[in-house]
């Protein structure tokens, strides 16, 4: 999400600034920040110290902090660090004015309507093949552990015409894959048009354009969407469906609004509609009050689903959330660590098993570039979002190629062009 937002910020500032990849050359450095967990914030504080240090050699340099930490910490940041600007996620249109007039240097006003719909992102750090397209902003779900509804404000969906125009333009420029982004894409609703309708329209732009999406909240994953996915070959067979926990009692404390049984029913529906669909997840270890039994239920859910991939985190208490105010962060650090390790170890086995099942199969791969480890190999992804590496041949990025899988690791498939 921040990657996509930075492309919007680059566009908003493009009349006044040129982009450089050299921080020593810059007269303005904006750090786009995430507040989701404490360690994300600590990394930013360290980086900010380094960047503010560059002011010694460049008196004109301005350093700003934008995004969720700006929203969460607001003026406090001006007092604790020598930052010049603090700008929240809905105030980016004000950046040029703030920079020209030097004041005010804090704008953290949240909006109920801002979607940056008419801003054409500058894809300054892109491979020219795949792009993120933001389709909605904010979140109304208030999971009890999560700071996003406070830092990004109310959920709002972007105008469907502006989304489709942006994607058509990307396709014409040579892009071959878009990922539609939102905190809960399944609740997309623009003037009565839902996500199933939107993704169908995107898929119809061109069969050579792949479509992905993230994230799907399990409570809103509809059979209607799954049916649309079966109709279009270019909608990728991969669903990120964060479970967070496998225990209904823990899910209740998390305010996720579904049970283990509901979640498994959604997984069953995915398997029924799209048998070769990859399913990935997010898991939180050691949430408030999590018992050993509840933790085991998470492990058994992971096993039952057999996730292709997972993002796994230790619970990190965020100020202002329901959990901060009403629950107790009472799982000792060493227990959180041990539970997270068990989750990660299990996921590595599951990823490896899933990849081993692919040996001998042939997949259509969209080539994204040269493999980082070898100049004579290319890499790309299959529909299931798995990275595939294979010998170069006469191909280039943006091409589709059929690759037969010959071996694998837990993270990667290796194969030959057929
Ligand atoms: N909107 C998405 C998630 C966005 S945040 C969804 O609901 O699926 C990405 C992930 O960060 C979450 O899925 C969750 O696993 C993790 N996360 C959020 N708040 C957290 C916290 N306080 N501590 C640890 N992990 C957290
Ligand atoms: Fe956070 Fe829940 Fe919203 Fe996801 S759905 S952003 S976890 S509050």
Q: How is this fold's topology laid out?
A:
Layout lengths: L1 H11 L15 E6 L4 H16 L8 E6 H6 L2 H5 L4 E3 L7 H7 L4 E2 L22 E5 L1 E2 L10 H4 L4 E2 L2 H13 L4 E5 L7 E2 L2 E2 H9 L6 E5 L8 H9 L6 E3 L7 H6 L6 H14 L4 E8 L6 H14 L3 E6 L7 H5 L6 H25 L4 E9 L6 E5 L5 E5 L8 E9 L3 E6 L1
Parallel strand pairs: 1-2, 2-3, 3-4, 5-8, 8-11, 12-13, 13-14, 17-19
Antiparallel strand pairs: 6-7, 9-10, 15-16, 15-18, 16-17, 18-19
Bound molecules: S-adenosyl-L-homocysteine and iron/sulfur cluster.
Descriptive notes:
The protein is α/β, with parallel strands linked by helices. The protein has 14 helices and 19 strands. The protein has helices spanning 2-12, 38-53, 68-73, 76-80, 95-101, 148-151, 160-172, 195-203, 223-231, 248-253, 260-273, 292-305, 322-326, 333-357; strands spanning 28-33, 62-67, 85-87, 106-107, 130-134, 136-137, 156-157, 177-181, 189-190, 193-194, 210-214, 238-240, 278-285, 309-314, 362-370, 377-381, 387-391, 400-408, 412-417. A hairpin with a 6-residue loop joins strand 15 and strand 16 (377-381). Helix 8 runs parallel beside helix 9 (223-231) and helix 12 packs parallel to helix 14 (333-357). The radius of gyration is 22 Å and the shape is globular. The chain starts with a helix and ends with a strand. The model has no long low-confidence stretch (mean pLDDT 96). The chain binds S-adenosyl-L-homocysteine (SAH) and iron/sulfur cluster.
């Amino acid at each position: 999400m921040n990657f996509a937002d930075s492309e919007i910020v680059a566009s908003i500032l493009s009349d006044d600034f040129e982009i450089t990849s050299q921080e020593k050359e810059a007269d303005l450095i904006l750090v786009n920040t995430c507040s989701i967990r404490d360690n994300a914030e600590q990394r930013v504080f360290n980086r900010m110290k380094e960047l503010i240090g560059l002011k010694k050699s460049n008196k004109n340099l301005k350093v700003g902090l934008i995004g969720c930490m700006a929203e969460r910490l607001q003026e406090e940041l001006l007092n604790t660090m020598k930052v010049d600007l603090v700008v929240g996620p809905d105030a980016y249109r004000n950046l040029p004015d703030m920079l020209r007039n030097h004041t005010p240097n804090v704008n953290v006003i949240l909006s109920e309507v801002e979607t940056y719909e008419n801003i054409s992102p500058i894809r300054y750090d892109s491979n020219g093949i795949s792009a993120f397209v933001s389709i909605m902003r904010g979140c109304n779900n208030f999971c009890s552990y999560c700071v996003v509804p406070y830092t990004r404000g109310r959920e709002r969906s972007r105008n469907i015409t502006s989304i489709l125009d942006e994607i058509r333009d990307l396709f014409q420029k040579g892009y071959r894959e878009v990922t539609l982004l939102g905190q809960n894409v399944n609740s997309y609703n623009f003037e009565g048009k839902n996500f199933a309708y939107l993704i169908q329209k995107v898929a119809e732009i061109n069969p050579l354009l792949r479509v992905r999406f993230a994230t799907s909240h399990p409570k809103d994953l509809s059979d209607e969407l799954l049916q649309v996915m079966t109709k279009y070959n270019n909608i990728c067979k991969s669903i990120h469906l964060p479970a967070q926990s496998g225990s209904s009692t823990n899910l209740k404390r998390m305010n996720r609004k579904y049970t283990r049984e509901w979640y498994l029913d959604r997984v069953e529906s995915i398997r029924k509609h799209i048998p070769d669909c990859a399913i990935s997840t997010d898991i939180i270890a050691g949430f408030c009050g999590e018992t050993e039994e509840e933790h085991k239920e998470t492990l058994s859910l992971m096993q039952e689903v057999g996730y292709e991939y997972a993002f796994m985190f230790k619970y990190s208490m965020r100020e202002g959330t329901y959990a901060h105010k009403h629950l107790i962060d009472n799982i000792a650090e060493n227990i959180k660590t041990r539970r997270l390790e068990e989750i990660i170890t299990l996921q590595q086995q599951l990823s490896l098993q899933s990849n081993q099942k692919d040996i001998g199969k042939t997949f259509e791969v969209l080539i994204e570039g040269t493999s980082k480890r070898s100049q004579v190999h290319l890499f790309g992804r299959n529909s299931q979002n798995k990275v595939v590496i294979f010998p170069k041949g006469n191909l280039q990025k943006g091409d589709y190629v059929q690759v037969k899988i010959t071996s694998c690791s837990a993270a990667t498939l290796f194969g030959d062009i057929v």
